[in-house]
Amino acid sequence: MKSPHESTAVFDQSLIEKYSVQGPRYTSYPTAVEFTEAFDHQRFTALAIESNASQRDLSLYVHVPFCDTICYFCACNKIITKNKTHSAPYLDYVEKEMQHVASLIDADRKVVQLHWGGGTPTFLTTEEQWRLTNMFRQYFNFATDDEGEFSIEIDPRTVTEQSIADLREMGFNRLSFGIQDFDPKVQIAVNRIQSYESTKLIIEAGYTNGFHSISVDLIYGLPFQNVKNFEKTVDKIIGLSPDRIAVFNYAHLPHLFKGQKQILDKNLPSPAEKLAILEMTITKLIDAGYVFIGLDHFAKPDDAMALDQKVGRLYRNFQGYSTFSECDLFGFGMSSISMVGNSYSQNDKNKDSYYERLDAGQLPTVRGVELSTDDVIRRKVITEIMCNMRLDFDAIGAQFGIDANQYFAQEKQALIALAADGLLTLTEHGFVVLPPGRLLVRNICMVFDAYLPKTQENTQEKTFSKAI
C-alpha cells in the first residue's frame, strides 16, 4: 500500500474548480497585506535587541535587486540594468545596514541559514560576491558547512563552471537554479532564453564542486505551454536529478506587475490545459521517486526537506519551505523582510529612499506587524498544516494553554466540508491532509485565517494568486 508521500494527487475537475479561489501562499501569518507603517525602524530596533534574550539561531537574507534583462513573468522587486556600476554603491549601503543590525545582536548567536535572493544575485561580479561574503562573515558568527544551509539563487545565464566553483569556495553549499521552461517558444514569449545544454553544464558543475543540495524552479501556466511541450522540460529536469524541485503556478497579475503586461492573455494556456500540465508534472515527478512535499514542492526521499516533513520538523518562512525553524530572520537590502520574535517587518522597496534612510543613520524598516496572541496561535496552526500536512488540536491546546477544540469550534465545522470533499480525514484529535489536499493545502489553511474575510471584503483588485 502506498504511503501518502507516494500517492499522486487526485485531479477531480469539479473539485479543482470549486477550490480555485484566490488565497495567500502563507510564507507568513499574518500575511504582508497586514503590514502597516505604524511599525517603524525604532520598533524593529527594540525587538532586535529583545530577541537576544532567546538566543535563537539566525537566518539571514540579502536581496540583490539587479537583473540585466527582464523576465516578463517575474513578480520580484527588481532593477533592470546592464550597468554594472550600480552594484558597488548598493553593497556600500547593505554594509551600513548590516553593521547597524549586527551592533544590536549578541555576537555569539549562530547563523545556521543564509540565502541570497533577487533580482539576480549573480549579477554581482566575482569580486563583489566575495565582498558581500566577507561582510557577512565579518559581522556574524556562522555555523560550519555541515551544520548550516547557505544558499544562493542562480540565473544559469549569468554563471560559468568556474563561478560555480568560486561560490562553493565562498561557503555556499546549496544552489537554486531558475529554469522555468526549456521550450524555445515559451522562452521567447517570456524573454528568458537559456538552453538546456548550457544549464546542464552549470548544474553538473554544482555537483562536481560538492554542493550539498541543488534545487530548480519551474513555472507552469506560461504562454504557449501545453502538456506535450512541458513534459519534455519535466523529462529533462528528471534527467538532471536535482534534490529539490519547485513547480510554481504562474499568477498573471499585470495590474500589479508591469512586466506581465507583455504577456497576452490569449497566449496563456486554458485553465483545463494548465491543470493537465500540473497533473502530468506531479505524476511524472512522483513516478521518478520524488516526494510530493505539498503545494508546489518536491524533494528526493533522502533530502532534508522530505526527512524533516516525515518527522514533523519542516518549517515555512519568507524563503519558502525550510529545514530550520525557531530562527530569527534578518533581511538586508531593499524590500527584504525580517521575522524577529513575534513580528514581521519590511525594508523600503525603493532604492533611493532605502539609501536616504541609511544616510540618515536609521534602519530602512518602513512597515511591519507585531503578532497578537491569536496571531501566534494561528501561525502555528497554519505552519503545521502547510509543512507537516496534519494538525493535532490537543497538541495546540497544550502548547498555548487553551481549549483548542472550543477555540477553533467554528473552524472545525468548516473542516467537515473539506473532509467530505476528500481533502483531509478527521481524526480523534484533529486531521490529516490527504493526497488531494496536498495540492489544495492553501485552501485548508484559509479556514484558520482570521484576516481573510476582511481582506476579501476590502480589496477591489486581486491581492493573492489562485490556489491552483
TrEMBL record:
Positions that bind S-adenosyl-L-methionine 1: 61, 118, 153, 337
Ranges for domain Radical SAM core: 52-285
Top-rank EC class of the record's enzyme: oxidoreductase
Any Pfam family the entry gives: HemN_C
SMART domains named in the record: Elp3 (SM00729)
Record-listed E.C. numbers: 1.3.98.3
GO cellular component: a single term: cytoplasm
Summary of the function given for this chain in its UniProt record: Involved in the heme biosynthesis. Catalyzes the anaerobic oxidative decarboxylation of propionate groups of rings A and B of coproporphyrinogen III to yield the vinyl groups in protoporphyrinogen IX.
Name recorded for this polypeptide: Coproporphyrinogen-III oxidase
